[in-house]
Design goal:
Largest sheet of chain C: 5 strands, antiparallel
Shape of chain A: globular
Largest sheet of chain A: 5 strands, mixed
Largest interface: C-D, 29 and 29 residues
Low-confidence stretches of chain C: none
Radius of gyration of chain C: 15 Å
Number of helices of chain C: 3
Radius of gyration of chain A: 12 Å
Helix content of chain A: 10-25%
Mean pLDDT of chain A: 97
Number of strands of chain C: 9
Structural class of chain C: alpha+beta
Distance between the termini of chain A: 37 Å
Strand order of the largest sheet of chain A: 2-1-7-4-5
Strand content of chain A: 25-35%
Structural class of chain A: alpha+beta
Shape of chain C: elongated
Order of helices and strands of chain C: EHEEEHEEEHEE
Oligomer: heterotetramer
Distance between the termini of chain C: 29 Å
Mean pLDDT of chain C: 97
Low-confidence stretches of chain A: none
Strand content of chain C: 35-45%
Amino acid sequence: MRIDVLLFASLKDEVGPSMPVELTEPATVADLRRALEAAHPAFGRFGRRAMVAVNEAYAREGDPVRSGDAVALLPPVAGG
Amino acid sequence: MRIDVLLFASLKDEVGPSMPVELTEPATVADLRRALEAAHPAFGRFGRRAMVAVNEAYAREGDPVRSGDAVALLPPVAGG
Amino acid sequence: MPFLTDRPIDPASLFEAVRRPSDGGIALFVGVVRDRNDGRTVTRLDYEAYGPMAEKEMAKIAEELSVSHPESNLLMRHRVGSLSVGEVAVVVVASAPHRDQAFAACRDGIERIKARVPIWKREHGTHGAAWV
Amino acid sequence: MPFLTDRPIDPASLFEAVRRPSDGGIALFVGVVRDRNDGRTVTRLDYEAYGPMAEKEMAKIAEELSVSHPESNLLMRHRVGSLSVGEVAVVVVASAPHRDQAFAACRDGIERIKARVPIWKREHGTHGAAWV
C-alpha cells in the first residue's frame, strides 16, 4: 500500500509537504519509520524524538498502519 | 508612658479604633500584650495569632515599645 | 504607584505594565470575591487595611521577591473597600524570560501577601455579617 | 470555540470567559514572543501547526485536566502564523474556588501543551531563520 506521510516544519522545508512510502501489509509504525529513513536522510535526523501520528493521534512503534490512514512524521514539538 | 494601640477589624468593631494602655519604661511587646489583655477580654481572644506591629512593622515579643511609637494589635490577617 | 487601591483593579493593565521585551512568560494570579465561603452564601466583602503598614509590607515583599526571583519582574495590587461577588480583590503578575521563573514568583507573591499584609475582610451574606 | 487561532489572542477575554461566581482564584499563563533566545536576537516567530491534530490534542488535554483537576475550569488558546516580539502565542487560564487548584491546573495545562501539541516555530532574527 502507498501512504503519503505528512511533513511539517524543517522536514517540510527540506522534503516537501508530504512523502510517499510503499509498505507491505500488515505494517506497523516501526515499518513506516524504516521506509522513511531509507527514502531520505532527513527522516533519521530526529531519531525517536520524531513522533509518528496515525489518524491525528500519537502512535506507538507497534501500532498498525493501514491503507487510508492519515499518517504524519512530527519533528519535536515546540509550541508555547 | 501612654500608648494608644491601633485596632482593626473585629477588635475595632468591639472596642473602638484604638485602646490606650499605660506602660512602665522600659517596656516590651510582651508587656504591651499583658496590659491589653488586662484591659479588655477581646484582646486575649486570638492569643499569639494576633501580631503586634511597632512603627508599621511586625514586632517580636522581646522588641521594645517606646514613647511615641505607632503600635497596633493585628487580628489574623485575611487579605486576598 | 501604591500597592493598595480603593478603585477597581484591571488585571490587563498590570499585565501590560509588567512585561519586558525579553520576557517569554507572564503568570498572573487574580483573587476575586466568590459567592460562597465555608457553605455560607456571600454577597459582599468589605476589605479593611492598616494602610501605611500594608503598603510597607507589600513593598518588603516586592523587595524580597526581587532578590529571591531576580529574573522576574513583579507587580502586585490589592483592593480595599466594599466589593461585590466577582470583583477583583488582588492581582499578582510576574513576568520572566521563562515560565518556571514567572510561576514561582507569582505564587510566592500571593502566598506572602496572604500571610503577612495587614488586611481583613468582613463577609456579608444571608447569615449576616462577620469578620472572616 | 477552536483551540488554535490565527488572530491575536486577548488574555482578558479568556479571563472573563473562564470564571464562575463560585471561583475565588484565577491563574493565567501568557506566553509571548521574546526578543532573544539562546543568545540570538529574535524579531519574529512563525508558528506552524498540524492543525487537525493540534485541535484534537488540545481537546484531549482539556478533557484530562477536567478529570485530574475537577474543581477547575480551564480555557486554552494557541496562536498560529507570524508573530512579532511581544505578541501573545499561548494563553492558559484556570479558575477554581481556591488558588491551589487554579495554579495547579494552569501549570499542568501549559506543560502538556508544550510537551504534546504539534506546533513548531521558525525563529527569524539577525542570524537568519531557523526552526527551533
